[in-house]
Amino acid sequence: MSLLSEILTYNEQFVREKEYESFVTTKFPDKRLVILTCMDTRLLELLPKSMNMKNGDVKVVRNAGAMIAHPFGSIMRSLLVAVYELQADEVLIIGHYDCGMGAVNSHDMIDKMKDRGIDEDILTTLQYSGIDVHDWLKGFDDVKDSVSYSVEMVRQHPLMDKKIPVHGLVIDPGTGQLDLIKDGYKEIELLKK
User: Fold this and answer.
1) CATH of residue 41
2) What does DSSP assign to residue 28?
3) In a domain, 112, yes or no
4) Partner of 40 at 20 to 30 A CA spacing, among 68, 92, 123, 169?
């Protein structure tokens, strides 16, 4: 049985037995918070439990490294939708130690792409089109710096409400301990002065 078949078989039972009832909530986050975090498998359950969050409390946006790579990309759009359409009043950017994006080597990844059949001509075409694939695939050297950078991108975004606190944290994927990198409340207070 394929993985997809297993998922669909389980889902039929899940719906039939109404297991979804314990997850019923609205589309609006009860704690009026949106979190950008990493897609790392260790964080799926650990992150919300370490923060005392349950289904319905927050909006969660995930990507590789909890990074905002472009000010007008899909991640920033999702954060803006959460604030303006879904009643989020605060933003948390949460990176994590031992993140795979801290070890990404674009040259190695491109070699893996070629091994799986991506033709060199495609990479050349992208380069001539002005797309630096190496730059696009790069990770970060320090998770704290990466989180700080993303926090500032959100805070300084021309379409973000300047009264929205944007916090930066780093979580330990083994213990769930959160380290505060940027306190959005302090930044808001500085703006008032």
Assistant:
1) 3.40.1050.10
2) S
3) no
4) 123
